Predict the structure of ribose-phosphate diphosphokinase.
Amino acid sequence: MVNLILTTTAQHFGAYFKDRMGFRIIPLERNKDGKNSFPDGEVYVNVGSSLLDREGRFIVVHSGAPDPNGGLAELEYILSVLKRANKEIEVFFTYMPYSMQDKIHAEGETNAAEDLLQKLVQYYGVKKIYAIDPHFHSASWLSNLPFVSVSPHGVLTSAVKTDYPDAIFVSPDAGHEKRAQIQGFKKTRTDSYTVTYDSSSMAHLTGKTVAVVDDIIETGGTMVGFHTACSVQKPKELVAVVTHGVLPEGILRLQKTYVRVYLSNTISRQEANVDLATLIFQTLSL
């Protein structure tokens, strides 16, 4: 039996797992105000006394947005309860917070992504960690960690091909090219909102339906910049395909720019239209 604890930011997956054979949801209880937080913003966690009598795998499903810091506090408190109860713990990040802080670029910085994973394993005793489309999926420092990178690309591409069978999939940067195993393009970043490309490298996309795939949308600068450059070559249509919709402003920019946006529900957004619950179920059932 898999005992599933959905953090506050992962509650949107509850309906799928509610009656799923082999899975049992352990609900988070609320405080006397009927909430999972106090008036001062502090997090309240109570997984219930019945937890102590349950056997099997204990998996905490967590999304690192829209509240990365408060969400991590809640996650750690849940793990603390499970640790004290001597349970076998696993963590599934639908979106892992701090995943882009995965390298040390200058003296005085830290690798926040590695630090977080090491803490889960070494302090809380987490036996396995999963994450959907993490920014650091091939980092060398992962080799000594019980980590599984979960690819959503099969689900996302299938959704696109249902509407656009002839779509050509490309990446707007070299980093996601490696993750998604599709053609990428070199970009030049001016600031957080502005990215430019050499449109001549996109000549082969003329008259094609182009599906632009990226892992994370924050400001939307990369995807909008790619659309601007690619439009010079007159593609048939441009659609956006995104795993993690981190910032609403970025999602809105894409909706105003692209013919259609395919967005997964790793983060609870009303704009999400590609459900990854089955992917999570299949991964945890292996």
